[in-house]
């Protein structure tokens, strides 16, 4: 891949609505070129026979199955409530 040009950096900055100076554009040009050269080293790796992965770790779904089960009744839930009104918990008002 070709090196990043100063005009490309300015173009991307403009698309991102970033105001950059010529000095910053020069600095970013050098930094981005270094990053691309470093990433191009991956092209040198022999990946024949390597299966593609979606994650580097072999993760399994650790969530429980979504199965219905018995819950307490509304009456049992309200049994120990310090204050209730009908079928609901009563709490102090926080609005004025």
What does this structure look like?
There is one protein chain. The chain has three helices and two strands; from the N terminus they run αααββ. The protein is mainly α and 96 residues long. The protein has a two-stranded antiparallel sheet with strand order 1-2. Strand 1 and strand 2 (88-89) form a beta hairpin. Helix 1 packs across helix 2. The mean pLDDT is 88.
Order of helices and strands: HHHEE
Distance between the termini: 64 Å
Structural class: mainly alpha
- The level of helicity is 25-40%
Number of extended strands = 2
H/I helix tally: 3
What Rg, in angstroms, do the CA atoms define? 30 Å
CATH architecture call of the domain at 6-44: Orthogonal Bundle
Shape: elongated
Mean pLDDT across residues: 88
Organism: Virgibacillus oceani
Protein name: Aspartyl/glutamyl-tRNA(Asn/Gln) amidotransferase subunit C
Family: Belongs to the GatC family.
Keywords: ATP-binding, Ligase, Nucleotide-binding, Protein biosynthesis
Give a brief rundown of this model.
The chain has helices spanning 6-15, 22-40, 74-78, and strands at residues 84-85, 88-89. It is mainly alpha-helical and 96 residues long.
Topology at a glance:
Layout: H1 6-15, H2 22-40, H3 74-78, E1 84-85, E2 88-89
Antiparallel strand pairs: 1-2
Helix pairs in contact: 1-2
């Amino acid at each position: 891949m070709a090196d990043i040009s100063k005009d490309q950096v300015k173009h991307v900055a403009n698309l991102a609505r970033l105001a950059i100076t010529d000095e910053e554009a020069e600095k970013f040009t050098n930094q981005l070129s270094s990053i691309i050269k470093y990433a191009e080293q991956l092209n040198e790796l022999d990946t024949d026979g390597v299966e593609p992965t979606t994650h580097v770790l072999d993760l399994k779904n650790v969530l429980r199955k979504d199965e219905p089960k018995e819950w307490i009744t509304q009456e049992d839930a309200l049994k120990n409530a310090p204050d209730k009104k009908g079928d609901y918990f009563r709490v102090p008002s926080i609005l004025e």
